[in-house]
Every structure is written in C-alpha cells, then in structure tokens.
Amino acid sequence: MTISNILLVLLVILIAGIFIYFHIRSKKNAEIVTNIDVDDQTYTLAKMIEFIKRRLDEITKINLYDIGLSEEELKRRKTKKYELKKALKGCTYGDVNDKKYVKELIYDLLAKEYGVTEMNISKAIPFDIPSVLTPQDKFDILLYFYKKEYAYEALGELINKYKLDDFKYVQGETKPCYVITEEEINDIYEKENLTLAFSDKLNIVVQRIYQQYKGYSSIDEIRDMNIDGVSGGVSGLPESFISQVAQTDSADYLTQIAEHKVQRACDSIWIMFHRKINSFRIFIFWFRSRTKKSLPKYI
Q: Which residue range(s) make up the domain with 247?
C-alpha cells in the first residue's frame, strides 16, 4: 500500500470520526431547547404552558441509549426519567410530593431554558400593576405568602384573620350567607401590601402553570389545605344543559349566560371549614371551567 493510499484511509477514518463525534454531541444536546423565538406572546401563560408540556414530553420520551452517555451518566439519567414519569402520574391523584417535584422542575425549565426574568414575568401575571390583577391573581398571591408561613394551615389563617367565615349579606341575596367575595379579596390584598421578590413571582407563575397543566385548576392549592373539604361544579346550570339551550332559539338566555348573569355550575366552588359542611358555603370566584378533571363532591 502506497503512502498516498495510507493517507487517504487515515483521512476517511478522521472524517468518519468527526462525523460520529458531532452526531453523538447533537444527540446529547437534543434534550435541551436552546432557541426560543421571542415575541410579545412568548412570556404569556399560554405560551409557557405550551413550552412546559413540550419539554416534559421530550424529557420523558428521549431514548437515552441513543445519545452516547457514559454508564454512570446513563444510570443517573434513567433514574431522573423514571422519577419524573412517576411524579407526573402521581400528580393526577393529587400527591403533594409529586406535585412539589414537578413544580421544581418547571421552575428550573422556565428560569434556565425559557429565559423568564424580572423584566418579562409580568407578561404572565401583572404583578407590578395591582389594579390589573384579577381576584384570582390576588387570591393566589395571598395564599402563596400565607403558605410560606403557615404551610397547609394557610387558608384557615386567612379566613380567621379577616373573619371571612362571618355570616353576611351580599348583593342579589335576600338572606345572609357564608361567602367570600371578590371585594373582600381585593380589600385584603390592599391591606397586606405584599412585596414580591422575583422568586416569589416565579413560584406563583409555576403554580398557575402546574394547576392548568397537571393540577386541579383554581382549587389545586385549596384542596391541599387543612380544611374539611372542597367541591366544585355543584351550584348553577350544568354544561350539558347549556349545550342543549345552545341548540335551541333561546338567544336571550344564551346572552345572559355569556354575560355571567346566570350562574353556571363551574362558576364557583364550595369549601367546608370547621365542619360546617351543610351551612358553610364559601364561593371562590374564577372557577370558570379551567377544571377538566371530574371532581368528587367533597375532596
């Protein structure tokens, strides 16, 4: 074999080696999303939920044997993949430890991959403009801060501190009832005058993403509290009835439903507190139906 042939063989081997190296490297990096197309919708909740769904799907489905990992790294990745799959399954049943695991991963993905910062996080929830916050936003923020101090007694502490379990009259009712109103939440939020660090804001956004993706919608945090129970979708018109009305010519009635003048089953929830199951009905706003799971009457 001539020297030129030897050099040619070595060149082919070198090129093949370089190709294999970059192929393995690209496989290793396939798990990481590096390019995020940024526009005015990128940091909205809807877009972030899409990103989280896609990333968790990629992480759980990636073929670890196809990316040239060392034995030790392969074992570590397999363990993490198994733990994530187990946690995602446990979330369906409301396991608080699985919920914590998934939320921590979502936090890391948003901060390290998606590029959520102090500058753009308010596009998800307008933390810096209290007048634009919805009652649901304010309630979530209040419950988050109370949970930091009181853990699963947070809702009870909030109710007791502001006497939210008092019998009261509300507009449109002829008799007093046990109810938490939007006005009360707005008033409490103003009185608390909370200061939010970036980590607080991101944790609240993470919870909102989690509850819409894997949790129990607006009641996700409430159902973890030490209360007697929570139920949803049991007061007002059921969706099946509204679907039937939509097929008729009752335009007047449909307009009232659209303008929230007629209460729908998904408009409120009841929480049972201090064993007052029959007489204690606390309506929490903004339940309109992000809840896609079928809930038992009392969880």
A: 128-272
The three-class DSSP label of residue 113 is: helix
- Assign residue 201 a region (left: φ > 0; alpha: ψ between -120 and 50; beta: otherwise): alpha
* Pair 134, 267 in one domain: yes
Residue found by looking up tokens 């801060």 in the block? 145
Neighbours of 4 (CB within 10 A): 8
Task: Please work out, in degrees rounded to the nearest 5, the angle formed at the alpha carbon of residue 137 by the alpha carbons of 132 and 143.
Answer: 145
Distances (CA, A) of 13 to 51, 68, 149: 40, 19, 63
The residues, ordered by sequence, that sit 6+ positions from 40 with a Cβ below 8 Å of its Cβ are 123
pLDDT of residue 53: 94
The partner residues of 230 in beta bridges, in order of sequence, read 271
298 phi and psi angles, rounded to 5 deg: -130, 115
Burial group, residue 259, by CB count within 10 angstroms (0-12, 13-18, 19+): exposed
Task: Summarize pLDDT for 133-181 with one digit per residue, the tens.
Answer: 998 899 999 999 999 999 999 999 999 999 988 888 877 777 887 788 8
Kindly tell me if the per-residue pLDDT of 281 is higher than 60. Answer: no
User: In this structure, are residues 99 and 248 in contact, taking their beta carbons and an 8 Å threshold?
Assistant: no
Please indicate, yes or no, if residue 105 is contained in any of the structural domains. Answer: no
CA dist 228 and 206 (Å) reads 26
Domain count, the chain: 2
Phi then psi for residue 256, to 5 deg, are -65, -40
Higher-pLDDT residue of 74 and 67 is 74
Rounded distance, CA 49 to CA 212, Å?
A: 8
Contact 223, 216 (CB under 8 A): yes
- Judge contact between 150 and 227, C-beta under 8 A: no
Sign of CA dihedral 279, 284, 289, 292: negative
pLDDT tens string 4-36: 766 666 766 777 666 655 555 544 444 454 567
User: Do 10 and 137 fall within a single domain?
Assistant: no
In a domain, 82, yes or no: no
